[in-house]
Amino acid sequence: MSIRVLWIWTREETPTEMFWSEPRKREFTDTEMTEAIKFCQELRGDVANTNIIIVSEIAGQVGLHDAGGIIENGMLPNGQPYEWEKRR
């Protein structure tokens, strides 16, 4: 599971119970991003749900493969040029 929806569910204080919050999560597969977004929309419809976020690291979509390592002569280990510059 590489897509997670995280949120905080809050129960309001009643005459017999104290106010409290509970972190919750639901996991989705790499191919279920649309479903995860729809689920977030559903959560937004209930005021008891706050801090709704999607966390994902879909395989093949994050970072350059074989790009880690030492940069030599302005080239990455995979042969691609390293051209990143910090801009202020």
Helix and strand layout, with pairings?
Blueprint: E1 3-11, E2 20-28, H1 33-44, E3 49-56
Antiparallel strand pairs: 1-2, 1-3
Provide an overview of this structure.
This protein is α+β, with helices and mostly antiparallel strands. The chain has a domain of 54 residues. Helix content is 14%, strand content 30%. It has one helix and three strands, in the order ββαβ. Strand 1 and strand 2 form a beta hairpin. 3% of the residues are buried. The model has no long low-confidence stretch (mean pLDDT 83).
Number of helices: 1
Beta fraction: 25-35%
Overall radius of gyration = 21 Å
- Low-pLDDT windows of residues: none
Distance between the termini: 37 Å
| Nearest-integer average pLDDT | 83
Q: Which structural class do the helices and strands define?
A: alpha+beta
Kindly state the number of beta strands. 3
Order of helices and strands: EEHE
Main sheet strand line-up: 2-1-3
Outline the biggest β-sheet. 3 strands, antiparallel
Backbone shape = elongated
- Provide the helix percentage: 10-25%
